[in-house]
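Researcher: Structure prediction, please.
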Amino acid sequence: MEKEEIIVAVNKFLLQEFEVDEKEIRPDAHLKDDLGLESLDFVDIAVMARKRFGITVKGKDMLSLKTLGDVYDYIHRLVQMK
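Model: Predicted structure follows.
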């Protein structure tokens, strides 16, 4: 799976589920400060990743991700390892 597919899917999820302002969706956006995501939102992202990409996101790994670009890279890495 191409990284671009992952970016599109994650962005769509953020727009639909969290109503994130589209202008804020950029790789360097900080998950908490810029996008307003909280710890429980990370669980939702992990569930979406499992359903959409068939990967298991570890909670401790998710908590270490700081920017949206980190999320894209992390999911892409797991998908490539499948």
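Model: The chain is about 60% helix and 0% strand.
Researcher: Thanks, that helps.
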